[in-house]
């Protein structure tokens, strides 16, 4: 049956070639899309983790409601407020930073941790002013947890602790202010007090949002500006495995009332975006493979129809109905396996080429994962097999005598 | 010993009864012609005797086997080794060469290597050696039919069933094919059951069974 299947395939060169191309592109396309998309998602994920660590510990943002103070003052007495206390509590400082750090150091899955103090304020230079994200960091511990240091294109993180009121400024913000390194700019704290600081470095991550607003200083500098000596807003933690961060965060959250979140909990939007991207890719692939499968189904179905007489004679000389099923199934299998192999090569070559394409700022991100190749191959081969199964089954069901009677 | 023993075979299509209780015996090595007008039930009898089609009642013994009660696998095997079929249309596989077509039944049994010699001999014997590597589309009608006959002989069957094998051929080619049947009948003692319209060929046979409206009208021996 094998030889006959091959002969059948070669006797219909154009149709076989089209099926082959369809399968090859289905497989290759799956590999290329998946490799690029996964590469891009991994890249974004790494950036998120690099900048913000695996786990963040912050104080819980509390809102005061009428009930919050019930029973606090005079038991059993009615209290009348002139203005009811409501809204956010005035600060979001982490109360138990020291306690946290002691505890974190002992945990086996914590690699490092660092403190930060963050606030949104304004900075100005001359007549320009702009809202900024002011971030006080620990220049020694920060690089152990995040890759912020790698994004500093001029100056060094360590320079922040070489004196008071030194800052590193995002590259876009710097452009906006028209400032350069060693210039002085003013930071206005929420109470309206102005603090002049000196620019000692430039930060550029490629992420526009950060580059336009980030101002890095030492923790003491920022505490000074915010007039909150000794306060910090968060602790950032690096764990042994970013993918298990949610699990670790869950465990950490039992230690205190503070808010403990893993990187993927903080970035729900990012994750749902990548999920949506993947879904779109899957739907596209599914549609494409469906079209290819339908093509295979059609060609084989037509072939079964055209080959009726030959099927009849095969049956009359002792071939079983199973033999005829195999004859057509084999054609589907051979074409899909050959197409799949070509698709693997196409995928590999295309990915190799795409990896060399330079985008502004970074190369194309392509993951190399054997699993993607195996999936692509299996996906097209199984769907092509399924598509050839129905026509093959029909061939098996043909009654030889009816065909002969029809043509005699 | 009987090659075929049919008793009270009934075959109907809906209300229409194509075979009305046919009983007949065909001895081994006999050359039998089945004749009759168009629509008299010749082909239907052919399919019923060879087990290609099911019957409503009665039974058919082929070489002592109840052909309609054989399990599917045995039936396929039986067709492969004991029976050869030739139809009015040649039914060659268009992708295979003359030689490959002849060897097709042997291939099922993985005997195509052993049978190759015999296939070449048949090609030669039927004067179609030049068709060995030709595809059916490159052969004449007579050549194709001879290839089909060679294919029916490749497994040395005990019975050959032929349904108007010359129906599409001119008189010269018909003559050639008929002579082949006659020769294999004489040489190999192969039982030949031949359906034909042509009285001339019918007279070549040892026995002529004439059908009319699904019944045996006459059963004449031409023993010479
Ligand atoms: N599948 C079928 N359904 C209904 N009637 C059928 C079927 N097959 C055959 N018949 C009828 O059975 C009768 C016998 O048909 P059969 O083919 O055996 O005739 P035949 O003697 O071979 O004729 P011919 O010489 O034209 O080949 C015919 O009247 C035909 O119409
Ligand atoms: Mg007929």
Features:
heterodimer, A: 408 residues, alpha+beta, two-stranded antiparallel sheet, B: alpha/beta, Rossmann fold, 7 helices, 10 strands, binds adenosine-5'-triphosphate, binds magnesium ion
Short note summarizing the structure:
Chain A is an alpha+beta fold.
Write the layout of secondary structure elements.
The complex is a heterodimer of chains A (408) and B (224).
Chain A: H1 2-11, H2 13-52, E1 55-58, E2 63-64, E3 87-88, H3 97-106, E4 110-125, E5 128-137, H4 142-145, E6 152-154, E7 166-170, H5 171-177, E8 184-188, E9 194-203, H6 208-213, E10 214-218, H7 219-226, E11 234-239, H8 245-252, E12 259-262, H9 263-266, H10 268-306, H11 308-316, H12 321-356, E13 358-359, E14 362-363, H13 370-397, H14 400-407
Parallel strand pairs in A: 5-10, 7-9
Antiparallel strand pairs in A: 1-11, 1-12, 2-3, 4-5, 4-8, 4-11, 6-9, 7-10, 8-9, 13-14
Chain B: E1 2-13, E2 16-27, E3 31-36, H1 42-50, E4 57-62, E5 65-66, H2 72-82, E6 83-86, H3 98-108, H4 112-125, H5 141-153, E7 159-163, H6 171-188, E8 191-195, H7 199-204, E9 207-212, E10 215-221
Helix pairs in contact in B: 3-4, 3-5, 5-6
The structure holds adenosine-5'-triphosphate (ATP) and magnesium ion.
What does this structure look like?
The complex is a heterodimer of chains A (408) and B (224). Chain A is 53% helix and 19% strand. By secondary structure, chain A is an alpha+beta fold. Chain A folds into two domains: 2-46 and 270-407, no CATH class; 60-76 and 87-257, no CATH class. In chain A, a hairpin with a 2-residue loop joins strand 13 (358-359) and strand 14 (362-363). In chain A, helix 2 packs antiparallel against helix 10. Chain A starts with a helix and ends with a helix. The model of chain A has no long low-confidence stretch (mean pLDDT 86). Chain B is α/β, with parallel strands linked by helices. Chain B has a single domain (2-221), classed as Rossmann fold. In chain B, strand 1 and strand 2 form a beta hairpin. The longest helix of chain B is centred in the C-terminal third of the chain and has 18 residues, at 171-188. Chain B starts with a strand and ends with a strand. In chain B, 51% of the residues are buried. The interface between A and B is medium-sized, with 22 and 29 residues. The complex binds adenosine-5'-triphosphate and magnesium ion. Residues 13, 16, 18, 36, 38-44 of chain B line the site of adenosine-5'-triphosphate. Magnesium ion binds next to helix 1 of chain B.
